[in-house]
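pinging the channel bc i need a second pair of eyes. not urgent but kinda urgent?? the chain im working w is below, pasted from the shared doc
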Amino acid sequence: MISELIKTFVYLATFIFVILLAFFSTKYIAKKSSVLGRSNNIKVIDGISLGNNTKLFIVEILNIIYIIYDNNSHAVVIEKYNKDDIANKLGDIKSEKEDISLRIKKLLSKKENTLEKLNKEKKNKDY
């Protein structure tokens, strides 16, 4: 009876050891493969599936942004942008937005001033 208990314990310990060995070796292999597949010059920013075999990708290669269409038989570069140009355009849009908000604030303050003047004139007429 004791020998059967020892056998069961040995089988259980062996099973747990094999499971732990598989777990840690899988983690090690995953870490090594992610380092091998990583590139400093190419980065997939985003991708979307358009259907069964068609996809659209935004890829950055050496500070140039590409919009790529892929349908499993071939890939087509739809558009190509320089990263610096995009940053400049975003800066221009931001400055235009700030300019518009300043104009709106000025118009609102003029409206408030006009309303205040009208209210003062109305009060003066009432007296």
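so The two ends are 113 Å apart (CA to CA). and The longest helix spans residues 83-126. — does that match what u expected or am i reading it wrong
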